[in-house]
């Protein structure tokens, strides 16, 4: 079934919406896992790294002088449980940035994604991203994809640091402000996670859930939210 919508902005989640969850949990997490310890030890002067490490220690209840090994043990356990903790996302993003720049990582999207993004842009819609992945990691991931460099597609990037938690309405108010304060009803959020859709809806946004076949949220309870299995089911006109 086709869902017809009218909007100015389309804000997109990444994992489970643009890309398969396995791309993040297997490809990207496996790339980051063995590199976390060396990255921390090799960047003692980088405030992004030292602040993230301090934040891990604090959040995990480790002493302020806990070793890299202890910090990495916590980071690995967070990846095992897919905890979307900001300091983990910061460190992963830096490592992925290098991986994409070196050509060791290439992003792959669901087949319906890039054709839809192109069509929406051609229609004059503006695109932005809101993901738990850090802004640096997001931008890097769009730089080297199986379909080329997609960075020019997106006007804004938001993460849990510059916007806030994905399951809180306040984050969507902050994003709307970052987009230049369009009417909330002129922003459409696409995500696979019902709680994220709830929060965006509370902020007055339009929302559509992605119930993609084979993905963890395929059979989730989306409540009253409209859902599609693919972007091909979305027909979006500019407001
Ligand atoms: C290269 S972006 C990596 C995405 C990521 O780390 C992540 O946790 C995705 O979460 P999302 O909020 O996009 O579902
Ligand atoms: Mg998601």
Automatic annotation (TrEMBL):
Question: Keyword set for this entry?
Answer: Amino-acid biosynthesis, Hydrolase, Magnesium, Metal-binding, Methionine biosynthesis
Instruction: Tell me the pathway.
Output: Amino-acid biosynthesis; L-methionine biosynthesis via salvage pathway; L-methionine from S-methyl-5-thio-alpha-D-ribose 1-phosphate: step 4/6; Amino-acid biosynthesis; L-methionine biosynthesis via salvage pathway; L-methionine from S-methyl-5-thio-alpha-D-ribose 1-phosphate: step 3/6
Class of the enzyme per the UniProt entry, highest EC level: hydrolase
Q: What biological-process terms (Gene Ontology) are attached?
A: L-methionine salvage from methylthioadenosine
Q: Which InterPro entries match?
A: Enolase-ppase_E1, HAD-like_sf, HAD-SF_hydro_IA, HAD_sf
Entry EC no(s): 3.1.3.77
Provide the cofactor note recorded for this chain's UniProt entry.
Binds 1 Mg(2+) ion per subunit.
Q: Which cofactor does this sequence's record say it needs? A: Mg(2+)
| Coiled-coil ranges (or none) | none
Question: Which reactions appear under catalytic activity for this entry?
Answer: 5-methylsulfanyl-2,3-dioxopentyl phosphate + H2O = 1,2-dihydroxy-5-(methylsulfanyl)pent-1-en-3-one + phosphate
Q: Which GO terms describe its molecular function?
A: 2,3-diketo-5-methylthiopentyl-1-phosphate enolase activity; 2-hydroxy-3-keto-5-methylthiopentenyl-1-phosphate phosphatase activity; acireductone synthase activity; magnesium ion binding
Q: What is this protein's function? A: Bifunctional enzyme that catalyzes the enolization of 2,3-diketo-5-methylthiopentyl-1-phosphate (DK-MTP-1-P) into the intermediate 2-hydroxy-3-keto-5-methylthiopentenyl-1-phosphate (HK-MTPenyl-1-P), which is then dephosphorylated to form the acireductone 1,2-dihydroxy-3-keto-5-methylthiopentene (DHK-MTPene).
Can you state the subunit structure given in the record?
Monomer.
> Family, per the entry?
Belongs to the HAD-like hydrolase superfamily. MasA/MtnC family.
What protein is this chain from? Enolase-phosphatase E1
